């Protein structure tokens, strides 16, 4: 597949070409150590494989073949010789590799040699998979799985697990489970593990990271792989790491083709290509020629060189029977020659399609279909291009459904979301300056198929109250796993443990998390049965317009590329302005242009630097300069559907100049991952909550605890979580303002167990959390609200994976905690944050913060918010009022602009509030204005003592 971190040999290690020259008299000298080792222990595995390892190091493949063939004639019963010959022969496409492996397997199985059986089956599985013999590959993989359970040797067991994971990876099934499994095994691998165990582990982790849309992680694993290969003096291993680093770099450039990074990647690929040619390694040479061609594709003066690289790639891939590389180069050559020879271009593309289908290469089929889409948009007609494009999207969705529900689907799908932006962009660009209604509807539908898919599925299951009752065993097994995680984390957060003990606990945590994720997937898969799950119907433009109110508008963003890595149209960037009577779309600066401006702005907010109109104007110009004039004077509420990095943008703070108030002070703003999600929330009946407010604040923390120690992020290691005195006052004021049957949990009473018990046993209109929070962009499920641990076996970390199991029944959730709306941004889904977890649990709307929130700022914001909510105002109106008062008091934009509403901001938690309360609120407003000057003076003093709710 395109950009694939491929398995380069049937032995799961890099193979090299066999030179055509006959072995010289120096053969015996070069392999003296191997010959001596074989003489001493001929039946030992390493004695035979020594010839293979030496050949990898010296590239004397003919010598190794000649010597091993002679040994095989003299020792026909030693199966390790056959296996070593197969490893060498695989590199040159030798016809008898299958025969050698089957012979070795028969002997190993007969003698119950699990190590040999595993090695032979792993190679045969790979060959069967490449040849499209899926059933045969599955059979070998199943036996490998059994070996992982039968093996008594820990290292052999690890090796078998890695090989089985490789099979799941090759078939693109349960990729998230593969990742979790490998991470758990990596944690168990001893520091002094054998080179090949570490090599295979890092190689597999790099490949699965790439498939999950984590190229940066893949590069990290490959960097470590190169390091251990250098230490081992394994030339082939070094080259393998560098070739696959080229794959990972190209994946990064697919999303963000920065010119300087393209040039760096090109230099790396060309240098590595030179090494493959010098060492006569056609497998790597073919792949590197494809990389060089892709990286030079946008240079219109280099097209002759691009075609030469691709022609050579096709020739090499055919000679060595490397089908997936041949498909890569065929489809890229089709795009390269499309302008001058459309007939050849279509013939090449059709051959690539046919080879992918014949070989059963699902991912190759998708990449080829997407390349075919690009070709059809180049050659026309548009109707055929659109038909081809929709077929490509259907293939992507088929692959998505192969993944278990949950995070695995999110990460797998995120790799492909650029295809949806490209198709929608082509539709809009082809429609011209005045697109017809049907063009707008069609493009809008394509984007909705990309957005919030996993959240939609989760919300559908949340509405199905019978799922847990229908599958009690699966549900109880999941809860037991979550308890196990809590127990391990409870031990991890203490300081009186050695690093060795911590390593052991982290390994146990990784294994427990893998188990919990597998059990959640099993439960969700069972719950998706027809009785409990229905395929969502995606919102249309007409649906949205029918649900909007006269004072509302929806801003829908598509943040694609104007020009992709190969120099073709990448879908572009657009903003839709949808009101009750009209839908319009405007071009914007693309992802490449907006990224540096957004990053600079976010840095100012998170570092609490002054943010004036000049600082926000570049982002305003990109995102709103065309949209705001199209809103009309009646619009006061905005529903924003962000895309990609726009999920991190504080729309409330944006304005065009110093004279214009920030957008959040003039409009009520909420966000939603998709129009379909928003429409579902808008159409839900109002919840019937018997209680009023539930507040948890300033939980008592063990001063010796470090909850973030469970994170893998180094910058959390020195984190200390302090008391939150303002949070305590905040919680008291919330329940005092709302009154009635409201519930307050403070200090030692603010435990994780009590929170879960209270939320599950009672109904509240609003749930307010004034606590520390921990966002984890590496493993989003570990994002946590920090509560008191208390009794009941809880660790005090109310994590996202636990929150999603709560039943919130339409409550409004207010998270006055740091980065509660921030997290890893997944393509199509948005931020995998604490706020999202509460939305999955059934919250009608969630208020969160995009960056760290100071304790004193949170107290100030909560006063205005709850004054309005208790007076019967909507959530959106109350948030706007709180932000306006914070702005008027002289607080910096960073103090209030990070607040965001996820969901339906029109919800009114406390309808029917008394007139008397409204009058009291008005009186307090007057007092607030009179005291504003005093507040400005006091703010500077308070800030010196402020505490962040990290």
SSE inventory with pairings:
Layout: H1 27-30, H2 32-40, H3 45-58, H4 61-74, H5 79-91, H6 97-110, H7 114-130, H8 134-150, H9 154-170, H10 175-188, H11 195-211, H12 215-232, H13 235-255, H14 259-278, H15 282-296, H16 303-319, H17 323-337, H18 342-358, H19 362-379, H20 382-402, H21 407-414, H22 417-431, H23 437-450, H24 453-463, H25 467-470, H26 472-492, H27 499-527, H28 541-547, E1 552-563, E2 569-578, E3 583-588, H29 591-606, H30 613-623, E4 637-641, H31 663-666, E5 668-671, H32 675-683, E6 693-699, H33 725-738, E7 743-747, H34 752-761, E8 766-770, E9 773-774, E10 784-786, E11 797-799, H35 800-803, E12 812-815, E13 825-826, E14 830-831, H36 834-840, E15 845-849, H37 855-870, H38 875-888, H39 893-896, E16 899-903, H40 915-930, H41 932-943
Parallel strand pairs: 1-4, 4-5, 6-7, 6-8, 8-12, 12-15
Antiparallel strand pairs: 1-2, 2-3, 9-10, 10-11, 13-14, 15-16
Short description:
The protein is of the alpha/beta class and 950 residues long. The chain has a six-stranded mixed sheet, sandwiched between helices. Strands 3-2-1-4-5 form a five-stranded mixed sheet. Helix 7 packs antiparallel against helix 8 and helix 7 runs parallel beside helix 9.
In words, what does this structure look like?
- This protein is an alpha/beta fold and 950 residues long.
- The strands form four sheets. It has a six-stranded mixed sheet, with helices on both faces. A five-stranded mixed sheet has the order 3-2-1-4-5. A three-stranded antiparallel sheet has the order 9-10-11.
- A hairpin with a 5-residue loop joins β1 (552-563) and β2.
- The chain starts with 26 loop residues before the first helix and ends in a 7-residue tail after the last helix.
């Amino acid at each position: 597949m395109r950009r694939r971190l491929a398995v380069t040999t049937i032995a799961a290690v890099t193979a090299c070409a066999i030179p055509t020259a006959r072995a010289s008299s120096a053969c015996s000298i070069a392999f003296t150590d191997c010959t001596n080792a074989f003489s001493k222990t001929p039946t030992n595995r390493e004695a035979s494989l020594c010839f293979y390892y030496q050949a990898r190091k010296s590239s004397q493949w003919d010598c190794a073949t000649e010597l091993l063939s002679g040994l095989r004639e003299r020792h026909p019963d030693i199966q390790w010789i056959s296996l070593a010959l197969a490893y060498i022969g695989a590199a040159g496409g030798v016809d008898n590799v299958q025969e050698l492996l089957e012979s070795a397997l028969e002997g190993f199985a007969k003698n119950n040699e699990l190590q040999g059986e595993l090695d032979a089956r792993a190679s045969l599985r790979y060959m069967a998979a490449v040849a499209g013999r899926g059933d045969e590959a599955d059979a070998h993989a199943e036996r490998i799985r059994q070996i992982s359970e039968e093996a008594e040797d820990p290292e052999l067991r690890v090796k078998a697990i890695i090989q089985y994971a490789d099979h799941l990876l090759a078939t693109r099934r349960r990729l998230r489970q593969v990742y979790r499994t490998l991470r758990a095994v990596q944690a168990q691998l001893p520091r002094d593990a054998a080179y090949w165990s570490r090599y295979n582990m890092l190689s597999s982790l790099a490949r699965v990271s790439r498939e999950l849309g984590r190229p940066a992680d893949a590069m990290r694993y490959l960097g470590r792989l190169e390091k251990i290969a250098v230490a081992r003096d394994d030339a082939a291993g070094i080259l393998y790491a560098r070739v696959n680093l080229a794959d990972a770099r190209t994946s990064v450039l697919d999303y963000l083709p920065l010119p300087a990074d393209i040039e760096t990647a090109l230099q790396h690929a060309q240098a590595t290509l030179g090494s493959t040619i010098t060492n006569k390694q056609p497998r790597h040479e073919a792949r590197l020629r494809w990389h060089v061609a892709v990286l030079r594709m946008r240079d219109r003066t280099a097209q002759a060189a691009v075609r030469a690289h691709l022609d050579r790639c096709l020739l090499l891939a055919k000679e060595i029977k490397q089908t997936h590389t041949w498909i890569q180069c065929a489809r890229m050559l089709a795009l390269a020659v499309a302008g001058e020879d459309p007939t050849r271009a279509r013939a090449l593309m059709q051959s690539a399609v046919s080879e992918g289908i014949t070989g059963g290469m699902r991912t190759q089929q998708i990449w080829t279909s997407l390349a075919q889409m690009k070709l059809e948009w180049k050659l026309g007609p548009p109707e055929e291009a659109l038909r081809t494009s929709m077929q490509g999207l259907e293939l992507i969705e088929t692959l998505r459904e192969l993944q278990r529900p949950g995070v695995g689907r999110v990460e797998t799908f995120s790799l492909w979301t650029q295809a949806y932006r490209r198709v929608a962009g082509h539709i809009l660009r082809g429609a011209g300056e005045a697109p017809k209604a049907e063009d707008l509807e069609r493009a809008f539908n394509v984007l909705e198929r990309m957005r919030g898919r996993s959240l939609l599925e989760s919300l559908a299951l949340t509405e199905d109250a019978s799922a847990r009752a229908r599958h009690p065993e699966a549900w109880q097994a999941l809860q037991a796993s979550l308890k196990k995680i809590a127990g391990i984390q409870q031990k991890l957060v203490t300081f009186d443990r050695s690093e060795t003990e911590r390593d052991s606990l982290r390994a146990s945590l990784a294994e427990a998390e893998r188990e919990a994720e597998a059990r959640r997937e099993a439960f969700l898969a069972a719950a998706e049965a027809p009785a409990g799950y229905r395929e969502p119907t995606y919102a249309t433009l007409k649906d949205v317009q029918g649900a909007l109110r006269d004072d509302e508008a929806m801003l829908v963003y598509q943040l694609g590329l104007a020009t992709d890595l190969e120099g073709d149209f990448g879908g572009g960037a657009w903003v839709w302005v949808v009101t009750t009577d009209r839908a319009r779309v405007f071009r914007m600066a693309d992802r490449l242009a907006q990224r540096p401006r957004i990053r600079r702005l976010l840095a100012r907010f998170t570092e609490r630097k002054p943010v004036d109109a000049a600082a926000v104007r570049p982002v305003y110009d990109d995102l709103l300069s065309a949209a705001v004039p199209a809103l009309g004077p009646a619009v006061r509420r905005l529903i924003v559907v962000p895309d990609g990095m726009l999920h991190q943008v504080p729309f409330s703070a944006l304005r065009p100049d110093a004279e214009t108030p920030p957008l959040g002070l003039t409009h009520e703003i909420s966000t939603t991952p998709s129009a379909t999600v928003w429409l579902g929330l808008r159409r839900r009946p109002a919840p019937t909550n018997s209680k009023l407010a539930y507040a948890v604040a300033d939980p008592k923390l063990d001063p010796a605890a470090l909850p973030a120690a469970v994170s893998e992020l180094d910058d959390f290691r020195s984190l200390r979580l302090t008391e939150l005195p303002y949070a305590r006052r905040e919680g008291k004021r919330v329940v005092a303002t709302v009154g009635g049957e409201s519930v307050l949990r403070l200090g030692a009473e603010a435990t994780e167990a009590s929170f879960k018990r209270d939320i599950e046993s009672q109904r509240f209109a609003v749930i307010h959390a004034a606590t520390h929070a921990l966002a984890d962009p590496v493993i989003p499920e570990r994002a946590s609200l920090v509560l008191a641990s208390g009794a009941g076996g809880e660790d005090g970390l109310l994590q996202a994976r636990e929150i999603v199991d709560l039943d919130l029944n339409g409550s409004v959730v207010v998270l006055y905690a740091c980065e509660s709306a921030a997290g890893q941004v997944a393509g199509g889904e948005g931020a995998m944050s604490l706020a999202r977890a509460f939305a999955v649990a059934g919250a009608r709307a969630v208020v969160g913060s995009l960056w760290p929130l100071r304790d004193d700022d949170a107290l100030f914001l909560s006063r205005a918010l709850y004054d309005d909510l208790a007076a019967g105002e909507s959530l959106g109106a109350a948030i706007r009022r709180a932000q306006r008062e914070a702005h008027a008091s002289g607080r910096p934009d960073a103090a209030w602009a990070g607040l965001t509403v996820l969901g339906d901001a029109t919800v009114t938690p406390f309808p029917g509030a008394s007139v008397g309360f409204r009058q009291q609120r008005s009186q307090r407003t007057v007092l607030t204005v009179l005291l504003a000057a005093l507040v400005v003076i006091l703010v500077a003093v308070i800030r010196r003592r402020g505490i962040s709710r990290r």
